[in-house]
Design brief:
InterPro entries: 6-blade_b-propeller_TolB-like, AB_hydrolase_fold, Pept_S9_AS, Peptidase_S9_cat, WD40. This is Acyl-peptide hydrolase. It comes from Nonomuraea endophytica. Strands 30-31-33-32-34-35-36-37 form an eight-stranded mixed beta sheet, with helices on both faces. Strands 25, 26, 27, 28 and 29 form a five-stranded antiparallel beta sheet that branches. By secondary structure, it is an alpha+beta fold. β28 and β29 form a beta hairpin. The longest helix is centred in the last third of the chain and has 16 residues. It is built from eleven helices and 37 strands. The structure holds ligand LZPLLZCG. The site of ligand LZPLLZCG has 19 residues, from α6.
Length: about 650
């Protein structure tokens, strides 16, 4: 058997059995919960659950009502349903479902007194990405993406569902720049009239929006719809009469707008960001037409906001490796923390939460050593439905333990990360797992977010999840440290971490590996060009040539900003910081992985490095998954990817276990 087709190999069987033991006990039931929502009085809580009916494809999404320690399905099993959202009175749940046409989400309403099917609202031209109730509960705001609009990298890249064009096989694929379908618009559904009408004018692209009083919405907008345009988006007020007023601009980025029920008070997060929907930063608050001002959020990079009433804003976010939930009082200017933890966190990309009118916060709490559980935090801690089952017990039994590690970069910058170690004594073979962004951050999450972490630990590897300069949770100045420094000062943040773990007897210097996706894929390819300590590397969804990345990715603004360079200039960082330009220095065997549908880091990036390595006689493999975008997400591709990862590390830096 060659390593072209790994199906049925001993490692494939081991990995398949791993996922079967993990998910098998909850087939047909949720294995992951997200998007918590609650009624104002907190008596009703709902979540979106990810459900595998079998280990094939992507999980479907379904809405669940939290009933004490139980979860009751709120939506049927046809298609996917997500983002349940209670009306201000709590009697009606709005949710989004693609039950009528796969991949195309529309608004549905489920009234408490209504039996049977949810009520479909008139279809909008596109797919609904999010919804929110007007403060008086008479209308629902819809964020609608055209069919074929680009998805963010953090959403898997590619495009929203696009009906198949009826063209002959020989017909060219033609691109003409932004088409009508690329735009994101705002619509309002009026419950009494049963009608849905367009709110945002032509020429305004709305990335995210919420109600701002009964007659307006607050939106993050751009004059163009392409993914790159998000990086210069502004905060706008869009009146129900269609008037658009710019409310604030920024030299960085905006996310998570929120407005009090009357619309008098506004809030938004201003942050250094590398990705749309991956926003953690400063909290700006304002009232009336006054300029928004930065408020003291207690050192937290804020990742979700919600006005609880006229004066109090609930928020969650990250502070170092801590996850924090707090309330900011706009009258006193004080922030009160409700909860913080380094052992657990909540939310997938970043912490997320919902608030009750009396200031309690609902989260789906999880940690590396804690399966997910719905928790209400106020004066008391109320623990509700938990995803504890035989599959979770299995992962707990094989995943070792997670501990905080700190070290200093050569320039003295203090750094931290989370180390997942197998039971027993080191030194262990060490895999450095590099996160994407670069502006994101590891925190204590189930599986540490990436499925291969507990799997590698089960095979005897220690896995270091470091937060280098540029990571979120350490304030905006820390995040800015990576501007112009990708492949510069950040390089030694990783090598100094490894030095520290070797010195402490945790890592074996002869068995050091690196894995990472996206920016982590860039850094994995870059590190092996910078020194020869690495025994094996797995860059996936990488950037390996910033020049060609700029002209093939759908986010060319990102690299120009984060490299602080210009691709047209010979000798610029676009060239000097590109791994392909240093391939002759590499001795590390590399497994290069990409998704064919990735528009963020196109698969040609992985191919360029693979070919450059082969040209220099370095062992290299290229695996391109035809149905995947930015990352490998669907079964059985996940099994295939994890099989190749385990095999690659076992071949070049064996753990002697498993
Ligand atoms: C290095 S090129 C683009 C990389 C990309 N950043 C900008 O678009 C990236 O690394 N994205 C991250 C974002 C992310 C982080 C954590 C959780 C979800 C998404 C990635 O895709 O990993």
């Amino acid at each position: 058997m060659t390593d072209i087709d790994v199906r049925g190999s001993a490692t494939w069987n081991l990995v398949e059995e791993h996922f079967r033991r993990l998910h098998g006990p909850v087939l047909g039931r949720p294995h992951k919960l997200l998007e918590p929502s609650c009624s104002a009085d907190g008596s009703r809580i709902a979540v979106t659950g990810l459900v595998y009916d079998e280990l094939a494809g992507l999980p479907r999404q379904s809405c669940f009502l939290v009933d004490g320690t139980d979860l009751h399905p709120l939506t049927g099993s046809s298609g996917s349903s997500r983002q349940p959202c209670f009306s201000p009175g709590g009697a009606t749940v709005a949710f989004l479902s693609d039950r009528a046409e796969a991949g195309r989400f529309q608004l549905y309403l489920l009234r408490e007194d209504q039996l049977g099917e949810a009520e479909a609202t008139p279809a909008v031209p596109g797919t609904v990405e999010y919804c929110s109730w007007s403060p008086d509960g008479t209308r629902v705001l819809l964020g609608v993406a055209g069919l074929g609009a680009d998805l963010a990298g953090g959403q898997g890249s590619g495009t929203t569902y696009k009906p198949k064009e009826e063209l002959p096989d020989w017909h060219p694929h033609v691109e003409v720049g932004a088409t009508e379908e690329a735009w994101r618009s705002l619509w309002v559904h009026d419950l009494a009239a049963g009608a849905t009408t367009r709110l945002s004018p032509e020429g305004l692209n709305a990335w995210e929006a919420v109600w701002s009083g009964p007659d307006a919405v607050l939106a993050v907008t751009s004059p163009a719809p392409d993914e790159s345009a998000w990086y210069t988006a502004v905060l706008s007020r869009v009146g129900l009469d269609g008037t658009v007023t710019e409310r604030a601009g920024s030299d960085v980025h905006f996310g998570w707008p929120a407005a009090s029920p009357s619309g008098e008070r506004l809030a938004v997060v201003e942050a250094v960001c590398s990705d749309r929907w991956v926003v953690a930063g400063d909290l700006l608050v304002g009232s009336g037409d006054a300029a928004l001002a930065r408020v003291d959020a207690g050192g937290v990079d804020v990742t979700a906001t919600q006005w609880i009433d006229a004066d109090r804003l609930g928020f969650v976010g990250v502070r170092g490796l801590e996850t924090v939930a707090a309330v900011y009082d706009a009258v006193s200017g004080k922030t009160t923390e409700l909860w913080s933890s380094t052992d657990t966190s909540c939310g997938m990309r970043y912490p997320e939460a919902a608030w009750t009118a009396d200031g309690r916060v609902v989260i789906v709490e999880e940690g590396y050593a804690r399966p997910q559980q719905v928790v209400v935090l106020g004066e008391d801690r109320v623990e509700l439905a938990a995803l504890s089952h035989a599959g979770a017990d299995y992962q707990l039994s094989i995943g070792g333990r997670a501990e905080t590690v700190t070290w200093s970069a050569p320039d003295g910058l203090p750094l931290e990360g989370i180390l997942c170690v197998p039971d027993g004594e080191g030194p262990f073979p060490l895999v450095v797992n590099i996160h994407g962004g670069p502006v994101w951050g590891f925190r204590n999450l189930w599986s540490m977010l990436y499925a291969w972490t507990p799997l590698l630990v089960s095979q005897g590897y220690a896995v270091l999840n470091p937060n280098p300069r540029g990571s979120s949770g350490r304030g905006q100045d820390f995040a800015r440290l990576v501007f112009g420094e990708m492949g510069g000062d950040d390089t030694a943040d990783f090598t100094s971490a490894v030095d520290a773990l070797v010195e402490r007897g945790i890592a074996d210097p002869a068995r050091l590996g690196v894995i990472g996706g996206s920016y982590g894929g860039y850094m994995s390819s870059w590190l092996v060009t910078q020194d020869q300590r690495w025994a094996a590397a797995v860059p996936f969804a990488p950037v390996t040539n910033w020049y060609s990345q700029h002209f093939t990715s759908n986010i060319p603004f990102f690299d120009a900003l984060f490299l602080d360079g210009n691709p047209e200039v010979p000798g610029d960082k676009f060239h000097t910081r590109s791994p392909v330009a240093h391939a002759s220095k590499v001795r590390t065997p590399c497994l290069n992985v990409a998704g064919a549908l990735d528009r963020c880091t196109p698969p040609t990036q992985a191919r360029e490095f693979h070919q450059a390595l082969l040209e220099h006689g370095v062992e290299s493999r290229l695996a391109i998954y035809p149905g995947e975008g930015h990352g490998v997400r669907a079964f059985p591709a996940v099994i295939d990817f994890c099989t190749r990862v385990v095999d690659w590390f076992q071949k070049h830096m064996p753990a002697g276990r498993g």
